């Protein structure tokens, strides 16, 4: 379930001129979402993106969800006769794109439709916890532990436990160059934690970068000191052990187990029912029901077998 605040509002590319950025609109177009050119989108998404490399032109033209693009004049001259959407030119397409993203989030209601935060009467929130005053929903029978921070645009379902020291809805590590200095691209998306999930101590979950949400599926268990990047999707019933790092836009399929200290790379995809071994690094797609690395590659120590038997008994 996605927060009502993450609604779709359509805008004209020509409106970018209001932001007073160093760019020029060549042809107007409509968009209701910002995103990367190679992202995954849903029907009805009309995406404004940026393009810097001529090698990516053909791939972008094949993506029907891309409705507007910020690019160099050279790229614009190549796509104008083939691309039916809006085109805006800039010397620094990526920089203008993220400046416009920050402008939309801070100066318009493109990303947000604000509401007062709502915590169910049966939920327990520790006195030292911090829950944002707007755009948060916390469901029935939840427990929010000591020193937990719950940021804007977070929805927490029923029977969820967020243990001490965790941060839900953190800003991500997103920077773009501005005159030789690094400038942050602010996260304006959200986090959705589904029913019966359990988030252990000192875990950080980034909120979505654009309008999307980072999703923790129903019944998922996330170990302490884990870091989950923006726009990650953790499937129902997953078990993520201690100290795992899951980079932005990655996905972990239903019922998968990620062991201690594993690293799931940006845009990587772990299928349903997989087992990812301790300290493994995944930078691609793992098919359903696969152990990675294989049993022959993994020594399967007595401690490891004990841990696997414990987790299996908890499923």
Account of the 3D structure:
The protein has two domains: 11-107, Udp-n-acetylmuramoylalanyl-d-glutamate--2,6- Diaminopimelate Ligase, Chain: A, domain 1 (3-Layer(aba) Sandwich), CATH 3.40.1390; 118-314, 3 Solenoid (UDP N-Acetylglucosamine Acyltransferase, domain 1). Mean pLDDT is 91; it is low at 1-6 and 296-301. It is globular and about 60 Å long. The chain has four helices and 35 strands. A nine-stranded parallel β-sheet has the order 8-11-14-19-22-25-28-31-34, with no helix packed on it. By secondary structure, the protein is of the alpha/beta class.
- CATH-wise, what's the superfamily of the largest domain? Hexapeptide repeat proteins
Taken as a percent bin, the fraction of beta residues is 25-35%
Tally of domains: 2
CATH topology of the largest domain: UDP N-Acetylglucosamine Acyltransferase, domain 1
Please tally the β strands and state the result: 35
Distance between the termini: 24 Å
Fraction in helix:
10-25%
Mean pLDDT: 91
Uncertain runs: 1-6, 296-301
Supply Rg: 21 Å
Based on helices, strands and strand pairing, what is the structural class?
alpha/beta
Task: Please name the CATH architecture of the largest domain.
Answer: 3 Solenoid
Which outline best applies? globular
Give the count of helical stretches.
4
Can you identify the CATH class of the largest domain? Mainly Beta
Major beta-sheet overview: 9 strands, parallel
> What's the arrangement of strands in the largest beta sheet?
8-11-14-19-22-25-28-31-34
């Amino acid at each position: 379930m996605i927060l009502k605040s993450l609604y779709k509002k359509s805008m004209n590319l020509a409106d970018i001129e209001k932001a007073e950025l160093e760019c020029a609109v060549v042809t107007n177009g409509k968009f209701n979402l910002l995103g990367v050119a190679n992202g995954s989108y849903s029907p009805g998404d009309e995406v404004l993106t940026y393009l810097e490399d001529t090698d990516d032109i053909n791939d972008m033209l094949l993506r029907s969800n891309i409705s507007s693009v910020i690019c160099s004049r050279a790229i614009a001259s190549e796509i104008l006769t083939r691309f039916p959407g809006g085109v805006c030119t800039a010397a620094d397409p990526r920089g203008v794109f993220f400046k416009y993203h920050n402008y939309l989030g801070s100066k318009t209601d493109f990303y947000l439709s604000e509401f007062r935060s709502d915590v169910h009467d049966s939920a327990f929130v520790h006195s030292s916890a911090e829950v944002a005053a707007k755009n948060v929903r916390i469901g029935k029978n939840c427990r929010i532990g000591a020193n937990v921070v719950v940021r804007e645009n977070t929805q927490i379902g029923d029977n969820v436990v967020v243990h001490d020291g965790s941060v839900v809805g953190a800003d991500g590590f997103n920077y773009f160059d501005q005159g030789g200095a690094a400038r942050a691209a602010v996260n304006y998306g959200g986090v959705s934690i589904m029913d019966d999930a359990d988030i252990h101590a000192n875990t950080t979950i980034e909120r979505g970068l654009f309008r999307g949400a980072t999703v923790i599926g129903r019944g998922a268990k996330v170990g302490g000191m884990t870091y989950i990047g923006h726009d990650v999707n953790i499937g129902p019933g997953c078990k993520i052990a201690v100290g795992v790092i899951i980079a932005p836009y990655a996905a972990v399929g239903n019922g998968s187990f990620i062991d201690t200290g594993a690293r799931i790379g940006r845009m990587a995809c772990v299928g349903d029912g997989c087992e990812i071994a301790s300290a493994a690094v995944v930078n691609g797609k793992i098919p359903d029901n696969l152990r990675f690395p294989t049993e022959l590659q993994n020594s399967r120590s007595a401690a490891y077998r004990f841990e696997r038997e414990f987790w299996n008994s908890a499923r």
